[in-house]
Each structure stands twice: as structure tokens, then as C-alpha cells.
Amino acid sequence: MPSSQPDPAMPEAEPAEKPRIVIVATGGTIAGLAAGSQGRAYRPGALSAEALVAAVPGLAELAELRCRAVFALDSVDLDLPRQAELAAVVAAELADPGVDGVVVTHGTDTLEESAYLLHLSLTSDKPVVVVGSMHPADAVSADGPGNLLGAVRVAADPGASGLGTLVVVGQDVYTARGLRKVDTVRTAAFSGRHTALAEVVAGQVLWYARPVRSRGTFAIEDLPESLPLVELLVSRADLPTEVVAALVAGGARGIVHLGPGSGNVPAAVAAALDRARRAGVVVVRASRVAAGPVSRNGAVDDDAHDWVAAGDLSPYQARVLLALALTRTSQTGQIQQYFDTH
Ligand code: ASP
pTM value? Predict the structure, then answer.
């Protein structure tokens, strides 16, 4: 009969090693302090990653943690080159056999762009989790410590491997693809139509779904020093069309058009975009509506214009994908393929 008593003749089992997680800090409200902010609501990125970690009870029990600061910025200043720099740092950490996963602390304002860039440019199967908070670290109702605890718990969970870049907000675990900031003040600030993968409940990660779209296609190691310029164009019927010419003259290799409804394009703007296309600029048709797909040849004959339809990607994530796609090709057929599969 098996006995539940330990056999005194057997050596005691080694305690399971804790996963080794690197906290990569970039700034944001999660590392922000309201006190002493001298007029501003708070100073984003004021706290070190070590201080953030030290403020979360129980974190050290979950994982062996190491901190690495890349930026201490409000995420509004994380431009594409900085986001690519972040991806290179995360890729280097993931390549280290002594690292099991990475948690990136980030401002919420542009988190969806950085997270999607990581998702598209990291090839490792090790977990990567991006986390932010809406309230500064010294607020009465600081949400950062709970979010960070959840993020480390997810990064330490075996179920998180092979899923690409994840985002943790409150109890919710999302895939980076398709996620958007949808509220300027509430702590539940993120949403996406097809982004929920898991939830953290009573210290456990409960998995419900897996992402099906491709990731890691544009390995950060293979990307050029500087990424092609892609601009966003918020459209309307009386938009001065010289704006489009100015974007092209400014060196844009791609334009993501934010049209009303299903990505509709006013006639005068369409003519200007056609001129841009003839000059070699790739035009992606997205919507200014918060959710729902812009389907190819749906509201607009994309074939006739030689444009690309963004599908359900937000214009902001479409800009990231287009910038990466343009490092490979300017062929609209191939770029449409990337949009259909990523
Ligand atoms: N402005 C801040 C940032 O994105 C907002 C936040 O983190 O919630 O860095």
C-alpha cells in the first residue's frame, strides 16, 4: 500500500526551482509617483524596477527576479525606434538560458503598440508579459502592485509559453494582438474583441483560449536599424488633400487611413491616396471605429485602388505591422497576406 508518510530512508526531494523572470522597466504610471509632482498629476517612471518589485508582497515567492531598466519614460515618448530597442533587449534576455520569462513594465498609453511589436518580433517561446497601471504607485488605490503580481504569476505559469506576448490588466490575461486602450481613467482600461486568453483567480492562472494568428515573423535580430516611416491619417470629407502629399513628401512609405465606419474613404481623399499609391506608398484602410473588421473589397474596392484592408487591427497596431511588413516588401498582395494572418 502506498503510504503518504515520507520514507525516512529516502533523501528529501529538492524544492522545485522557481522560474527565473526578468523585469524590464520602461517607465509609465506603474512606476509613477503623485507626491511631489509639482503641478502635474504625477511623474511617470519615477520609481526603479527594484522599488516596484519590493512593494509587492509575495512576489519573490513566485519567481527568482532580476530587474533591468531600459527607459524611465512616459510611454507617450516611446516611439517606434525605442519600441524596437525594447524588443532587442527583451530578445537578448530571452536568449539567455538562465532566463525563463520576461515581464515588461510599461505606460498604458502606448502599451498596445509596444506589446504588438514584441509579439511580431520575438521568436522565443518563453513567456513575455507586458503590464502597466492606471494609478501611480503611491495612489491610495494603486493598481500597479496587483497587476505586477498577476504579470509575474502569468510569466511563471507553464501555460504561458508559446503564446507570444501577453498583457495582464487586473485579473485579465490578453494576447497583445487586437488589444486597445479603451478608457482614459478606469483601471480596466483595455479591451479587444478576440483578446481574452485567461484570468488570474485566487493565485491560479485559468487558461481558456490560444491565439491562432502568426507571431514572431519579423525577428528583431533581422530588422534594419531604422524602420520605414508609416503615418496615420485621420480622414474626413473636407480634409485638405495636401495633407496626403505632405506625408509623402515627408518620407512616409506607408499611410494607415482611419476612415469612418467600415474604413470608408471620402472621394477627394481617395484620389489623393491613389496618387500616393502611384508614388509607391502603401495605403492601409483601417477604421476610426473602436471595434470590428475592415474587410477587403467590402465598403471599398481595394483591388481597384491597390490598397490593403486592415481587418480588425486598430490603426495603431496596423501602423506597427505595416512598418515591419515594409522591411520585407512593398507588394500589396504580400502585405495583405501579413494582415490576414497576423
Ligand atoms: N501617460 C502614462 C504612460 O503611458 C499613462 C499610464 O501609464 O497609465 O506612460
Answer: 0.94
Select which of 26, 29, 105, 108 is catalytic: 29
| CATH 3.40.50.40 residue spans of the chain | 228-341
CATH 3.40.50.1170 maps onto the chain at 20-207
Length of the chain: 342
Please tell me if the CB atom of residue 132 comes closer than 6 angstroms to any atom of ligand 1.
yes
Is 29 known to be catalytic? yes
Kindly report the CA angle at 90 between 311 and 323, in degrees rounded to 5?
35
Residue 3 has pLDDT above 50, yes or no: no
Q: Is 60 in the pocket of ligand 1 (CB under 6 A)?
A: no
Q: How many CB atoms lie within 10 A of CB 7?
A: 7
Fold for 20-207, please state it.
Answer: Rossmann fold (3.40.50)
Q: Which CATH number fits domain 228-341: 2.40.30.10, 1.25.40.10, 3.40.50.40, 1.20.120.290?
A: 3.40.50.40
For residue 170 the three cell numbers come to: 487586473
Alpha carbon of 266 to those of 31, 147, 180: distances in Å?
43, 43, 26
Atom 3 of ligand 1 has which residue's CA nearest to it? 107
| Per-residue model confidence as pLDDT tens digits over 116-149 | 999 999 999 999 999 999 999 999 999 999 999 9
Q: What is the mean pLDDT of residues 154-173?
A: 98
